[in-house]
Please model this.
Amino acid sequence: MPLKSAPFGTFDATRLVENAPLSAFTTWRVGGAARWLLHARADELPVVFDACHRRGIPVYKLGAGSNLLVSDSGLPGLVVCFRRTLQKIWFHEDQITAEAGALMPRLARTAARNGCAGFEFLAGIPGTVGGGV
Model:
Protein backbone atom coordinates (compact mmCIF):
# COMPACT_ATOMS: atom_id res chain seq x y z
CA MET A 1 0.00 0.00 0.00
CA PRO A 2 1.48 3.39 -0.97
CA LEU A 3 2.23 5.86 1.80
CA LYS A 4 1.73 9.60 1.86
CA SER A 5 3.57 12.06 4.12
CA ALA A 6 2.47 15.32 5.69
CA PRO A 7 4.05 17.54 8.37
CA PHE A 8 2.15 15.59 11.04
CA GLY A 9 3.06 12.04 9.95
CA THR A 10 3.08 9.37 7.26
CA PHE A 11 -0.08 7.42 6.51
CA ASP A 12 -1.61 4.94 4.11
CA ALA A 13 -2.45 6.94 0.98
CA THR A 14 -6.10 5.83 1.16
CA ARG A 15 -6.47 7.58 4.55
CA LEU A 16 -4.62 10.86 3.88
CA VAL A 17 -5.98 13.10 1.12
CA GLU A 18 -4.43 16.42 0.09
CA ASN A 19 -6.69 19.24 -1.10
CA ALA A 20 -9.74 17.14 -0.26
CA PRO A 21 -13.05 18.63 -1.42
CA LEU A 22 -15.10 18.86 1.77
CA SER A 23 -18.35 19.09 -0.17
CA ALA A 24 -18.14 15.31 -0.47
CA PHE A 25 -18.22 15.03 3.33
CA THR A 26 -21.19 17.26 4.22
CA THR A 27 -24.93 16.78 3.87
CA TRP A 28 -25.25 20.17 2.14
CA ARG A 29 -22.67 19.11 -0.50
CA VAL A 30 -21.06 22.57 -0.60
CA GLY A 31 -17.72 23.98 0.49
CA GLY A 32 -14.10 24.22 -0.49
CA ALA A 33 -11.18 21.89 0.06
CA ALA A 34 -9.18 21.01 3.16
CA ARG A 35 -5.41 21.24 2.86
CA TRP A 36 -5.32 17.71 4.31
CA LEU A 37 -8.05 15.26 5.27
CA LEU A 38 -7.12 12.30 7.45
CA HIS A 39 -9.25 9.26 8.28
CA ALA A 40 -7.42 8.70 11.57
CA ARG A 41 -7.37 5.78 13.96
CA ALA A 42 -7.78 6.43 17.68
CA ASP A 43 -4.19 5.46 18.47
CA GLU A 44 -2.87 8.07 16.00
CA LEU A 45 -4.79 11.05 17.35
CA PRO A 46 -2.48 12.12 20.21
CA VAL A 47 0.60 12.11 17.96
CA VAL A 48 -1.19 13.88 15.08
CA PHE A 49 -2.72 16.55 17.33
CA ASP A 50 0.61 17.16 19.07
CA ALA A 51 2.51 17.44 15.77
CA CYS A 52 -0.05 19.89 14.38
CA HIS A 53 0.01 21.96 17.56
CA ARG A 54 3.83 22.18 17.51
CA ARG A 55 3.79 23.27 13.85
CA GLY A 56 0.88 25.71 14.15
CA ILE A 57 -1.33 23.67 11.83
CA PRO A 58 -5.03 24.23 12.56
CA VAL A 59 -6.99 21.03 13.22
CA TYR A 60 -10.70 20.60 12.50
CA LYS A 61 -12.77 17.57 13.49
CA LEU A 62 -15.38 16.13 11.14
CA GLY A 63 -17.97 13.47 11.85
CA ALA A 64 -20.86 12.83 9.49
CA GLY A 65 -20.91 16.43 8.26
CA SER A 66 -24.62 16.82 8.95
CA ASN A 67 -25.77 20.44 8.93
CA LEU A 68 -22.20 21.62 8.43
CA LEU A 69 -21.40 24.52 6.10
CA VAL A 70 -17.79 24.84 4.93
CA SER A 71 -16.55 28.05 3.37
CA ASP A 72 -15.99 27.92 -0.38
CA SER A 73 -12.43 29.06 0.35
CA GLY A 74 -11.85 25.79 2.23
CA LEU A 75 -9.84 25.12 5.36
CA PRO A 76 -6.10 25.74 5.66
CA GLY A 77 -5.09 22.93 7.99
CA LEU A 78 -5.92 19.34 8.78
CA VAL A 79 -9.45 17.95 8.89
CA VAL A 80 -9.62 14.74 10.91
CA CYS A 81 -12.58 12.68 9.76
CA PHE A 82 -13.95 10.28 12.36
CA ARG A 83 -16.78 8.70 10.40
CA ARG A 84 -14.88 5.93 8.59
CA THR A 85 -12.54 4.86 11.34
CA LEU A 86 -13.89 5.61 14.82
CA GLN A 87 -17.28 3.88 14.84
CA LYS A 88 -17.04 1.31 17.62
CA ILE A 89 -19.74 0.93 20.25
CA TRP A 90 -19.31 -1.46 23.16
CA PHE A 91 -20.91 -2.38 26.47
CA HIS A 92 -19.25 -3.28 29.74
CA GLU A 93 -21.51 -4.12 32.64
CA ASP A 94 -23.70 -1.02 33.05
CA GLN A 95 -21.69 1.31 30.79
CA ILE A 96 -21.90 2.03 27.09
CA THR A 97 -18.94 3.55 25.23
CA ALA A 98 -19.08 4.97 21.73
CA GLU A 99 -16.28 6.39 19.60
CA ALA A 100 -16.65 9.85 18.08
CA GLY A 101 -17.47 8.55 14.59
CA ALA A 102 -20.34 6.29 15.67
CA LEU A 103 -23.64 7.43 14.19
CA MET A 104 -26.17 8.49 16.81
CA PRO A 105 -29.07 6.43 15.35
CA ARG A 106 -26.82 3.35 15.42
CA LEU A 107 -25.99 4.05 19.06
CA ALA A 108 -29.71 4.24 19.87
CA ARG A 109 -30.41 0.91 18.10
CA THR A 110 -27.42 -0.81 19.72
CA ALA A 111 -28.44 0.42 23.16
CA ALA A 112 -32.02 -0.78 22.66
CA ARG A 113 -30.87 -4.22 21.47
CA ASN A 114 -28.78 -4.53 24.63
CA GLY A 115 -31.63 -3.50 26.94
CA CYS A 116 -30.21 -0.06 27.68
CA ALA A 117 -32.87 2.67 27.86
CA GLY A 118 -32.46 6.42 27.57
CA PHE A 119 -30.88 6.66 24.13
CA GLU A 120 -34.13 6.61 22.14
CA PHE A 121 -33.99 10.35 21.44
CA LEU A 122 -30.85 9.80 19.32
CA ALA A 123 -32.72 7.63 16.79
CA GLY A 124 -33.78 10.54 14.59
CA ILE A 125 -30.73 12.78 14.94
CA PRO A 126 -28.35 12.71 11.98
CA GLY A 127 -24.69 12.85 12.81
CA THR A 128 -22.09 11.25 14.98
CA VAL A 129 -21.55 10.99 18.71
CA GLY A 130 -18.58 13.37 18.41
CA GLY A 131 -20.75 15.98 16.73
CA GLY A 132 -23.42 15.60 19.36
CA VAL A 133 -21.24 16.35 22.36
About this structure: The chain has a mean pLDDT of 94.
